[in-house]
Amino acid sequence: MVHQVHQLTKILFTYLLLVTTFSCQQQQQEEVVNLKVQTINAQDVKYASKKGIFYVNDKKFSGEIYWTYNNGTDTLRVKRYWKGLKEGQWTRYYPDQSILEYRFYHKNKKEGEHISFYPNGEMRFSYHLKNDVYDGNNLAWNHNGKLISNMNYKEGKEEGAQKVWYNNGKIKANYVIKNGRRFGLLGTKNCINVTDSVF
Fold it and tell me: Which regions in the chain score pLDDT beneath 70?
């Protein structure tokens, strides 16, 4: 009987812990969903970043702030914050208002897919990050649309197949990282590894 009561208490405690955790996570998600509480023009306010916290008119900022080009009408970039921390999608634009790049943040750290485009609309790069470091497949192209880099990362470190090409399509580096060791064409130049010189 005592064992059954102990088991029941354990189950009840686990259930309450899960409910509390889920409730907190749901509240945080709702806060982020409702992030766009205000949209302001950077020219209309006093703003500053201190020790990683963004302030508008001396208060931790929650919302969306945008900058314009010199003409005062075309958007240059848009940043989003929650309680002074970088949060959500940041966007930069070319003067013709086409997208230059998307970046994503969560609690001041880079997260998810970061994408950049050339002025002609061709993809420049697609990087994946988690907790502020590369994590996943990172691709880069030259302005003609040729793939020039295909790198893989796990928790900020190279892991798996790594390939880099010259603009003419010739292979520059082609190697695999397995258990922290490199195998294959390293693409060294002047005693500097290609991973040190390209990125």
Answer: 1-36, 187-199
Nearest CA to 164 out of 141, 191, 192 is that of 141
d(C-alpha 86, C-alpha 1), whole Å:
53
* Number of domain units in the chain: 2
Q: What is the CATH number of the domain that holds 170?
A: 3.90.930
Are 77 and 23 members of one domain?
no
* 23 and 61 together in one domain: no
Q: For 110, how many CA atoms within 13 A lie in the half-sphere containing its CB?
A: 14
Residues 118 and 124: their CA atoms lie apart, in Å, by 6
Distances (CA, A) of 82 to 32, 75, 89, 162: 7, 21, 12, 36
Tokens 């970088």 found at: 86
Instruction: Domain of residue 83: give its range.
Output: 36-198
pTM for the whole thing? 0.73
- Residue 18: predicted pLDDT: 47
Closest CA to 104 of 96, 94, 114, 95: 114
In the chain, what is the greatest distance between 2 CA atoms, to the nearest angstrom? 78
